Amino acid sequence: MFATQFDSQVRLPDDYFEKAKREYTNWIFCWWREVFQNSADGGAKNIHLSIEVLECGDVIVTCKDDGVGMDETILRNVFLSLGGTNKGADSTGGFGYAKVIILFAHKSYTIHSNDNIVRGVGGNYSLTKSDSPIRGTVITVNLGKQNSSLVLMEAQRLLDNSNIGGLSVILNDKKHTPASTKHEYITDTEIGKMHFSDNRDCSPPLGRGFPLLRPLLPNWQIDAGLHG
């Protein structure tokens, strides 16, 4: 029989969460992917991503959105709880193990969601109430000393490979414009010259609760016409 009360707990070493970075081929890209997907899942219409370099060389990344945000119960019992999730098994986002790469694996983090402010290092955090509630969520993470150009490049790569639909996304004060290419084709047929035009966007669709990374299948819009 086990005692009904315990007076000790397993201690985690300081670098326990940091080791999680090794499980990702590109953890910087994954950081952007997870926070961006969380904002989309939270019903955001506007997402602001930014990178700042401190005098000491630490890189600060921020994701700000105007979604529904999180109340204290969700923050404590889901977002800041390992294994806690309110998403399906096939979804992407920071309510599963990915929260480690979003928050716990880095030097420090701050979350401002609705009237809640969380400040943390690793698995230790404090939660206080804000006198200035906001709509949505702002996640700010100190990644430590990183190559800021690489961090920016991975954020841009994510956006270039995502169909952001009706979302308005700003990266470092610059509005993101989805890349697309246009191809023209003219061919002879028995009834005359046929003209084809397609606007090709090779970005994967981004939907509520759907993984952002999936095979890059082209989404084509094709127009055809007959030249007399």
Question: Could you explain the architecture of this structure?
Answer:
This protein has 228 residues and is an alpha+beta fold. The chain has 2 domains: 18-175, 2-Layer Sandwich (Heat Shock Protein 90), CATH 3.30.565.10; 181-204 and 212-227. Helices cover 18% and strands 34% of the residues. It contains 4 helices and 11 strands; from the N terminus they run αββααββββαβββββ. The chain has helices at residues 27-41, 72-79, 99-104, 148-160; strands spanning 46-53, 58-65, 108-113, 116-121, 124-129, 137-145, 168-171, 174-175, 181-189, 192-201, 219-227. The strands form 2 sheets. Strands 5-4-3-6-2-1-7-8 form an 8-stranded mixed β-sheet. A 3-stranded antiparallel β-sheet has the order 9-10-11, with no helix packed on it. A hairpin with a 2-residue loop joins strand 9 (181-189) and strand 10 (192-201). The longest helix has 15 residues, at 27-41. The model is unreliable at 88-95 and 197-228 (pLDDT under 50).
Instruction: Could you tell me the CATH topology label of the largest domain.
Output: Heat Shock Protein 90
Order of adjacent strands in the largest pleated sheet: 5-4-3-6-2-1-7-8
Main beta-sheet annotation: 8 strands, mixed
The radius of gyration is 22 Å
Distance between the termini: 89 Å
The helix count comes to 4
How many structurally independent domains?
A: 2
Residue windows where pLDDT falls under 50 for at least 5 positions = 88-95, 197-228
SSE string, helices as H and strands as E: HEEHHEEEEHEEEEE
**Beta strand count:** 11
CATH class of the largest domain: Alpha Beta
Average pLDDT, rounded to a whole number, is: 79
CATH superfamily of the largest domain: Histidine kinase-like ATPase, C-terminal domain
Which percent bin holds the helix content? 10-25%
Q: Give me the CATH architecture of the largest domain, please.
A: 2-Layer Sandwich
Judged by helices, strands and strand pairing, the structural class is: alpha+beta
Shape designation: globular
